[in-house]
C-alpha cells in the first residue's frame, strides 16, 4: 500500500454521515428494483444492478477487514473472483449473485458493522488512511459512482422496451438562457487541482497552468441546438466528424442522442432512467458521445473546452447549469505533475492511456459528493450512456 498523502486542513463535511447516506441510497435502489431485473445485464458495458450493490459492500470489507485489520479474506473465497471487476467478466456476474433478499440482509449487516468499525475501533481509527476520515470519504464517493452506474443500467432497461411509453409532461425548469451566451476570458496563469480530503488521486497536487485567451459558453448545449444539428443533416458523415468520428458514425449508424424518439405526431421525446419525457428545448442535451460533441462543436465553428479552461471558468463563477450533464472536454485523461497513485495503484493510472477523455461537472444523476470543480471523470469517446453532454469554447 502506498504512503498516505499529506491532507489539507480545509474543513470537510461529516464523511461518516455521507457514507451512511450512500448506504441508505444503496438499500433503497435494490429494494426498488423489480426482482426479475436485478440480475439482468442490459448492456455489455454495464453490470447487473445487484452486482453494483454487492460490490460496494465487498469493497468496504476488503479495505477494513483485510487491508487495515489484516484479517484473512472471507470464507466465501469466490467473492474475490465475483466482486473484483478485473477478475469477473461482466457477462458472468448476474448468474453468480445470491438472491436479492440475501444481498439486502448481508448488505445491512455489513453497513452496521463497518460504520461501527469506522467510528469506534482503535486500530481502524489510528490507521493513516483514516486521517481526517479520508477512507470514509473515498468509500462514500465510490458508492456514489456506482449508484450513478445503477441509473445508467435503469436507462438501458428502459431503452430495451420494444416501444416508447406515453411521454410524461415536461419537467419544470427554473432557468432560461440565450443560446449565444459567450463569456470572454483573458489568458494568464490559473490554478487547477485540489488537496482537499475528499478528492481522488488524479485531482491532487494543485498546480498552475497557463491559459491562452478563450471564450466559453455559460450554459451547456441544449436540446434545441441538437435538434437543429439533426435536422440540418449534421449526422451525415461529413468533414466535421473527422476520420475517427466518421468511422464511429458509420459503424454505429447513430442519428440522434441516446434515447431520442419521434412519435407519430412528430413530437420529439427522450427515454431516460425515470421514463420518457417530451424534449424540453432549453434543457442541456444528454446522451452524447465525445464524437458527437466534437462533431457538433466543429459544425458550429467552435471547439470543446480543455479541462483546464473548464475548471478555471467554473471556479471563476462563469459557468451556469453545471451538474445537469457530465461535460465532455477536448483533452484525454492524463496525470497531473507530481501524480502519485492513491490509495491503490489501479484507481487512475491504468486509464492514462490516451484513449479516455475527460468529463467535468457531474450530472442530474450524480450525488453532490461528486459535483466539484476539480472532479475528473473519464470515458472512451464512444460512450453515450454516461449522462454526458457538453458546452462550447473558442480560442481568441
Protein architecture, described:
With 396 residues, the chain is of the alpha+beta class. It folds into two domains: 145 residues, Four Helix Bundle (Hemerythrin (Met), subunit A) (Up-down Bundle), CATH 1.20.120; 214 residues, paralog of FGE (formylglycine-generating enzyme), CATH 3.90.1580.10. 34% of the residues lie in helices and 12% in strands. Helix 1 runs parallel beside helix 7 and helix 2 packs parallel to helix 5. The chain is globular and about 60 Å long.
What is the element string, with H for helices and E for strands? HHHHHHHEEEEHHEEEHHEEEEE
Given helix and strand content, the structural type is alpha+beta
CATH topology of the largest domain: the name is paralog of FGE (formylglycine-generating enzyme)
Q: Number of helix segments?
A: 11
Outline the secondary-structure elements.
Elements lengths: L14 H17 L17 H20 L10 H5 L6 H4 L6 H21 L1 H4 L8 H26 L22 E4 L2 E5 L14 E5 L2 E4 L5 H9 L10 H11 L7 E3 L5 E5 L2 E4 L11 H10 L7 H9 L10 E7 L24 E4 L16 E3 L8 E2 L3 E3 L1
Parallel strand pairs: 8-11
Antiparallel strand pairs: 1-4, 2-3, 4-12, 5-6, 6-7, 8-9, 9-10
Summarize the structure.
It contains 11 helices and 12 strands. The protein is an alpha+beta fold and 396 residues long.
Q: Main traits of this protein?
A:
396 residues, Four Helix Bundle (Hemerythrin (Met), subunit A), paralog of FGE (formylglycine-generating enzyme), four-stranded mixed sheet, three-stranded antiparallel sheet, 12 strands, 34% helix, globular
Amino acid at each position: 500500500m502506498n504512503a498516505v498523502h499529506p491532507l489539507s486542513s480545509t474543513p470537510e463535511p461529516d464523511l461518516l454521515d455521507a457514507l451512511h447516506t450512500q448506504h441508505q441510497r444503496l438499500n433503497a435502489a435494490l429494494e426498488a428494483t423489480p426482482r426479475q431485473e436485478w440480475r439482468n445485464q442490459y448492456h455489455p458495458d454495464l453490470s447487473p444492478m445487484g452486482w453494483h450493490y454487492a460490490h460496494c459492500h465487498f469493497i468496504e470489507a476488503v479495505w477494513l477487514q483485510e487491508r487495515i485489520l489484516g484479517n484473512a479474506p472471507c470464507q466465501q473465497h469466490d467473492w474475490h473472483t465475483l466482486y473484483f471487476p478485473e477478475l469477473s467478466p461482466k457477462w458472468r456476474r448476474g448468474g453468480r449473485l445470491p438472491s436479492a433478499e440475501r444481498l439486502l440482509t448481508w448488505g445491512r449487516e455489513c453497513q452496521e458493522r463497518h460504520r461501527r468499525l469506522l467510528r469506534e475501533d482503535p486500530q481502524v481509527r489510528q490507521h493513516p488512511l483514516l486521517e481526517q476520515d479520508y477512507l470514509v470519504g473515498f468509500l462514500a464517493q465510490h458508492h456514489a459512482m456506482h449508484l450513478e452506474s445503477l441509473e445508467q443500467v435503469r436507462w438501458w432497461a428502459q431503452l430495451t422496451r420494444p416501444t416508447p411509453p406515453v411521454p410524461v409532461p415536461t419537467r419544470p425548469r427554473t432557468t432560461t438562457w440565450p443560446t449565444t451566451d459567450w463569456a470572454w476570458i483573458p489568458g494568464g496563469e490559473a490554478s487547477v487541482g485540489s488537496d482537499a480530503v475528499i478528492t481522488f488521486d488524479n485531482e491532487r497536487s494543485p498546480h498552475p497552468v497557463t491559459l491562452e485567451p478563450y471564450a466559453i459558453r455559460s450554459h451547456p448545449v441544449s436540446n434545441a441546438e441538437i435538434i437543429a444539428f439533426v435536422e440540418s443533416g449534421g449526422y451525415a458523415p461529413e468533414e466535421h466528424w473527422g476520420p475517427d468520428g466518421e468511422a464511429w458514425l458509420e459503424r454505429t449508424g447513430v442519428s440522434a442522442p441516446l434515447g431520442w424518439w419521434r412519435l407519430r405526431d412528430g413530437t420529439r421525446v427522450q427515454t431516460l432512467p425515470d421514463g420518457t419525457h417530451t424534449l424540453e428545448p432549453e434543457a442541456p442535451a444528454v446522451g452524447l458521445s465525445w464524437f458527437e460533441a466534437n462533431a457538433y462543436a466543429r459544425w458550429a465553428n467552435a471547439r470543446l473546452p480543455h479541462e483546464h479552461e473548464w475548471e478555471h471558468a467554473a471556479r471563476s463563477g462563469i459557468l451556469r447549469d453545471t451538474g445537469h450533464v457530465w461535460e465532455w472536454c477536448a483533452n484525454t485523461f492524463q496525470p497531473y505533475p507530481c501524480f502519485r497513485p492513491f490509495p491503490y495503484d489501479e484507481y487512475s493510472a491504468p486509464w492514462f492511456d490516451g484513449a479516455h477523455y475527460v468529463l467535468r461537472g457531474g450530472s442530474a444523476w450524480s450525488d453532490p459528493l461528486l459535483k466539484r470543480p476539480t472532479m475528473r471523470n473519464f470515458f472512451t469517446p464512444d460512450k453515450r450512456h454516461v449522462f454526458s453532454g457538453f458546452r462550447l469554447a473558442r480560442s481568441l
